[in-house]
C-alpha cells in the first residue's frame, strides 16, 4: 500500500460521498486494510485531507497545463476540447465534491481557486485568439467558466452534459 493508493481511494470516496464521507474507517474498508496502514502514511486525518487536496491540485494543474500549452491553432477547437475534458463524467463527481469541500476548508478553496485561475486564463487566451478584445475576452471567459460550474452543480445526480449542449453554449459564447 502506498500513499498514492490512499489518495486514489480518497478521490473515489470523495466523488461518491463528498467531504463528509472521508473517514479513516471507510477508506480502510475500501482498501481492505487496517487503520495501521493509514497511520503508516499519514499522521492524522488532517494531514491526509491536506495531501488529498494537494494531489487534486497537482492533478488539475497537469490538466490545465495541457490547456495552456495546447498546440491547436483553432481557438474554437481548443475551447471545445477544454469543455469536453472538464465535463467528462469521470471528472464530474470529483470536481463537484472538491468545490463543495472548498466551501468549508480554506486550503481546498485555495487549491480550487488556483486551478480555476489557470483554466480561466487559458479560456481567455482562446477568446483573444478568436479575435475578441482583452476586456471582452475577460467577460466571456468568466461567463463561460461560471456556466460550466453552474452546470456542474445544477446537474443533480446527472453526471454528464450532452455534447450538443456544450457545443451550443460554445456557439453562443463565440457569437459577436
List keywords for this structure.
single chain, 176 residues, mainly alpha, Tetracycline Repressor, domain 2, 78% helix, HTH_TetR, DNA binding, Homeodomain-like_sf
Identify the overall geometry.
Answer: elongated
Highest CATH level, the class of the domain at 53-174? Mainly Alpha
Task: Please give the share of residues in helix.
Answer: over 70%
The pLDDT mean sits at 87
The CATH architecture designation of the domain at 53-174 is: Orthogonal Bundle
Strand % is under 5%
CATH topological fold name of the domain at 53-174: Tetracycline Repressor, domain 2
- Helix-strand string: HHHHHHHHH
Query: How many strands?
Result: 0
Taking the sheet with the most strands, its summary is: none
Domain HTH tetR-type: 7-47
GO molecular function: DNA binding
Protein name: TetR family transcriptional regulator
InterPro entries: Homeodomain-like_sf (IPR009057), HTH_TetR (IPR001647)
